[in-house]
Specification:
eight-stranded mixed beta sheet, about 280 residues, alpha/beta
Length: about 280
């Protein structure tokens, strides 16, 4: 059974939600699912067996001006511009849309990535029923949108995409026999440039002090991971799923038609991926 690794990328993860839903609908269920940043939401719903709910969240909760609000982000003393707390605490938990017990039962095993603000290094955690919501909060804590540090067991964490955008080669304690399948939301050959002067000013003005160093180095960490990924693909150690050229989603896409089109595109990619996996590795089902 496969190890499925999901990149984040903000609203681009609506596309990978479609991929995940199609895979599970076709009976290709991973043994391990690893998510980073917004990809951690998809990983969690995959682990809980609620991929239809996951697609509904992307199609009907994320669109509009509430979940992503620049007005809120730029208003002093307002809640964060990204309504991560509302999504996790109200929509997923209080409204009962997310089964925390199912997500952490280990079939598939769930891992999520976060960035430790003290060390500046990525951390791959295997959440429990009691802390899965906090680890999701940490993995989603984009410094320029959520501007808060998430504390777990006395340590501070921010968005996993800062230090570990594609955690495909991090050690885990769960064995799997099938291939490692990496679903990207941006092309593998996409590199990040250093922040320019106004981006650095924005980081200094809006990112918590403890998270600034890792955020300013994000381009270095991202490019290093992608370099390792390219090498692993070249050695046939990873089955890479690059996003199609027609994927139009951006990190902060908010309009419903674009998000729903991204989900549908992901479903088509996932259906083809399921067929390819069954042909190449029949035991994945």
């Amino acid at each position: 059974m496969i190890k499925l690794v999901l990149e984040g990328g903000g609203a681009r993860a609506a596309y990978s939600a479609g991929v995940v839903h199609a895979l599970c609908s076709e009976g290709v269920c991973p043994r391990v699912v690893v998510g980073c940043s917004s990809g951690s939401i998809n990983a969690a719903f995959c682990a809980s067996g609620q991929t239809e709910t996951m697609c509904d969240l992307w199609a009907n909760y994320v669109p509009g001006n509430y979940f992503i609000s620049w007005r809120r982000h730029l208003t002093p003393f307002a809640p964060p511009g990204l309504a991560i707390d509302d999504m996790l605490d109200r929509v997923m938990v209080a409204e009962g849309r997310f089964d925390v017990a199912a997500a952490t039962r280990g079939n598939p095993a769930l891992y999520v990535a976060a960035t430790d603000v003290e060390s500046g290094k990525g951390v791959l955690a295997r959440p429990t029923k009691d802390n899965v919501i906090e680890w999701l909060r940490a993995s989603l804590a984009l410094p320029v949108g959520y501007n808060r540090i998430v504390r777990i067991d006395g340590r501070g964490y921010i968005d996993g995409g800062v230090a570990m955008p594609v955690p495909f080669d991090e050690p885990i304690d769960t064995e799997h026999e099938g291939p490692t399948v990496v679903v990207l939301t941006r092309k593998m050959d996409t590199s990040k440039a250093p922040p320019n002067w106004w981006e650095r000013m924005f980081i200094w003005s809006s990112v918590p002090r403890a998270a600034r160093y890792a955020t300013l180095r994000q381009h270095e960490l991202h490019n290093a991971v992608m370099g390792r990924l390219r090498a692993a693909v070249g050695r046939n150690e990873v089955l890479l799923v690059n996003p199609p050229d027609e994927l139009a989603l951006k990190r902060f896409t908010r309009d419903a038609p674009s998000l729903r089109a991204g989900i549908e595109l992901g479903k088509r990619v996932g259906q083809k991926l399921a067929r390819d996996l069954r042909e190449a590795v029949p035991e994945v089902v």
